[in-house]
Design brief:
The complex is a heterodimer of chains A (122) and B (196). With 122 residues, chain A is of the alpha+beta class. Chain A contains 5 helices and 4 strands. The longest helix of chain A has 15 residues. Chain B is an alpha+beta fold and 196 residues long. Chain B has a 6-stranded mixed sheet. In chain B, α1 packs antiparallel against α3. The longest helix of chain B is centred in the last third of the chain and has 19 residues. Classes of the chains: A alpha+beta (122), B alpha+beta (196). At the A-B interface, α1, α2, α3 and β2 of A face α1, α4, α5 and α6 of B.
Chain lengths: 122, 196
């Protein structure tokens, strides 16, 4: 087993820092469709890219989770972004590259990438 | 599916839908006897004997209690294509275990692929659940148990914080390297996974 000492170091670092408590009222939720249809269409690399980019940018108010079948299998991989007080945005036919752009444009700067949304693709 | 590791992701999703708190993923590669066994077991809602018997039927789904559609039948077909098999054991209120056996030398074998990526994403995206990943190859094996990591991290650090995820990622690749050192069987080399 890889050294647990490194994990302890991570914990101790966190202890020494003042942790900003996440305010869940304005947390943005990113949902990646991960049913059979989504996975077969390539959802895993998309989810991977989402998780990595959110971590890289240190977006503490964003949680990335998987969800089941969203019901529009022909548009998979599908990513939904749920921001409190705003209308849900559904991105379709996603790729890892598109995912990175969505994180940067939408999650960081608040600009919806209209060309990837379901409205522009149906 | 292009890789069996994607099927594992899919089957684990059923466990998550079934409200499992602990999901165990067991990958056992035996080049000498030409067998690959993948087992996914959970402590979720489970199924009645009648439901469990019908899970492998692609036209059966219990959209009201437990979402099962194409995932299990597809996994079963892929196993049987290689001359292997798939079994479902389930008990209402106790949990479900899916066991698939493959014959890797068969021409229709789908590579295992990037199983580590599957495990990492499952852990990352389901912070409130525990996972035990066990990977065995020949005589070497390793186990990653999120409950052990939690014990070290305590309440201050979340399991899906970037630093911890990086640690898990490194841990998985190092351990995999270690168990693969012994086995040089070409049949068992996976694909490059999500980077490909």
């Amino acid at each position: 087993m890889k050294s647990l000492a490194e994990l302890q170091a991570i914990r101790d670092r966190a202890r020494s820092q003042v942790i900003l408590r996440e305010n869940n009222d304005n947390a943005i939720r990113v949902l990646v469709g991960m049913a059979t249809c989504g996975i077969a269409a390539g959802a895993r690399p998309v989810l991977n890219a989402m998780v990595e980019e959110v971590a890289k940018r240190g977006l503490a108010n964003v949680t990335v989770t998987q969800t089941g079948c969203i019901g529009i299998c022909q548009f998979e991989p599908v990513v939904e972004i749920v921001t409190p007080g705003q209308e849900k945005v559904t991105y379709v036919k996603m790729t890892p590259e598109k995912a990175v752009r969505v994180v940067n444009d939408h999650l960081v700067n608040g600009n919806v990438v209209t060309e990837y949304t379901i409205g522009a693709n149906s | 599916m292009r890789e069996l590791s994607l099927n594992v992701m899919d089957i684990a999703q059923n466990s998550i839908s079934a409200g499992a708190k602990l999901i165990e993923i067991d990958v056992c590669e035996e080049p000498r006897t030409d067998r690959l066994t993948i087992r996914i077991s959970d402590d979720g809602a489970g199924m009645t004997a009648e439901q469990a018997a019908r899970v492998t039927d692609p036209f059966f789904t219990t959209r009201t209690t437990r979402k099962i559609g194409m995932g299990v039948p597809l996994f079963k077909m892929e196993a049987e294509m290689t001359g292997g098999s798939l079994g479902v054991a389930s008990q209402k209120g106790v949990g479900t275990t899916i066991t698939a056996v493959f014959v890797p030398s068969h021409v229709d074998m789908i590579p295992l692929g990037d199983i580590n990526s599957t495990v990492l994403l499952l852990i990352t995206c389901n912070e409130d659940r525990d996972f035990v990943f066990h990977h065995k190859m020949d005589s070497r094996e390793f186990t990653l148990d999120t409950r052990e990591l939690r014990a070290v991290l305590g309440n201050e650090v979340r399991l899906n914080s970037p630093e911890v995820i990086q640690w898990i990622k490194n841990c998985l690749s190092e351990e995999t390297q270690f168990i693969k050192e012994e086995s040089t069987d070409e049949v068992f080399s996976g694909t490059s996974g999500d980077q490909g």
